[in-house]
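Incident log, support desk, overnight shift.

02:14 A customer reports that sequence design results differ from what the structure should imply. Their input is reproduced verbatim below. On-call engineer (initials T.W.) acknowledged and began investigating.
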């Protein structure tokens, strides 16, 4: 399979042009979304109706096109297109981008499928758009798979979410399914997935029973902070999350996922995360809402296929050592706490045409 670059930027100037080549990554097999998904012959075409899929879009039409190419392989029977509106003061170009993103989503559905559209006339912001969008979805659906425009799933994502949603549908301790794995490559698992305190949302799934129980008017953060929920946690993890939620409470971070995470912790709920990363976020860098630093390293080391049948871990309980690895390999990296050596390797790797810790097989 020949390597082709994914577009990395949501720059408005690129919407009528061919995407500029991104940096090749050693070991990567990436494709141009305009060419359609190039999954291997062994990819399982779903024969049973998949759960409803909710996609959240804004103003990056090229990324929306690539996402619809992935959905075209899975062929879900129902799609919710939830779109934010243009921001005031950004002019006609912003309006055109939002309109093109919606057109890409609508025209990309080329198989028999029920499409529900929830479009905002003006800009709601990412938190309100996702929260109100999921309100509408779960007024009608009992479960759903959720993707934002820059979160492009690999071939194992939909089978994994579909099976986990069915497997844990009546298990109240499980709050959601993630397509993300940020464990280091050296972590050893004897199962296809694991239970964790961390529900990652770059491609995920959940049930109406969880979303309807979530009270967004309350910030579920204990007086003793992170230690209230995880007394065995280490000091650096406590400092990290206490600082995050101080900023959330003070209005300095306007996002929807941290408050949801605190709610899950307050209820002692767990997530199911795969043993390999099944989704790639192609929106990191210019045009992103929050993750605007192109050097951001999410900890995408585990990028192999996730073979079926999916092997269940013993006992529904989080493994503190895996949660600790996830914190170190993902959250600390995302906060920029990387060593000077890592940063130096990034810059040299970029100049040489490869970035060692960002190899990806998600598009295989």
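02:41 Re-run completed on a clean worker. Output:
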């Amino acid at each position: 399979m020949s390597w082709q670059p994914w577009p990395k930027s949501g720059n408005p100037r690129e919407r009528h042009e061919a995407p500029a080549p991104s940096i090749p990554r050693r070991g990567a097999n990436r494709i141009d979304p305009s060419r359609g998904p190039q999954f291997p012959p062994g990819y399982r075409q779903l024969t049973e109706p998949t759960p409803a899929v909710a996609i959240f879009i804004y103003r990056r039409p090229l990324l929306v096109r690539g996402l619809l190419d992935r959905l075209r392989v899975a062929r879900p029977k129902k799609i919710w297109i939830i779109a934010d509106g243009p921001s005031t003061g950004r002019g006609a170009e912003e309006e055109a981008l939002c309109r093109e993103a919606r057109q890409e989503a609508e025209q990309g559905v080329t198989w028999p499928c029920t499409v529900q559209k929830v479009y905002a006339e003006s800009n709601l912001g990412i938190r309100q758009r996702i929260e109100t969008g999921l309100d509408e979805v779960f007024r009608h659906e009992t479960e759903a798979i959720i993707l934002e425009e820059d979160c492009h799933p690999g071939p194992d994502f939909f089978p994994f979410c579909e099976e986990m949603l069915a497997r844990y549908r009546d298990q109240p301790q499980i709050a959601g399914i993630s397509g993300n794995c940020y464990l280091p490559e050296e972590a050893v698992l004897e199962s296809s997935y694991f239970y964790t305190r961390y529900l990652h949302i770059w491609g995920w799934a959940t049930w109406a029973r969880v979303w309807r129980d979530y009270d967004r008017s309350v910030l579920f953060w204990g007086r003793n902070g992170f230690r209230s929920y995880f007394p065995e946690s280490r000091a650096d993890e406590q400092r990290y999350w206490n600082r995050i939620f101080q900023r959330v409470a003070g209005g300095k971070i306007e996002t929807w996922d941290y408050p949801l995470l605190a709610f899950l912790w307050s209820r002692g709920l767990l997530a199911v995360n795969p043993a390999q990363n099944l989704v790639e976020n192609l929106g990191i860098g210019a045009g992103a809402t929050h993750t605007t630093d192109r050097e951001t390293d999410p900890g995408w080391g585990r990028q192999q296929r996730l073979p079926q049948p999916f092997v269940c871990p013993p006992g529904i309980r989080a493994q503190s050592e895996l949660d600790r690895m996830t914190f170190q390999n993902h959250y600390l990296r995302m906060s920029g706490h990387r060593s000077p050596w890592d940063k130096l390797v990034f810059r040299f790797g970029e100049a040489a045409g490869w970035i060692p810790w960002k190899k990806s097989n998600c598009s295989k």
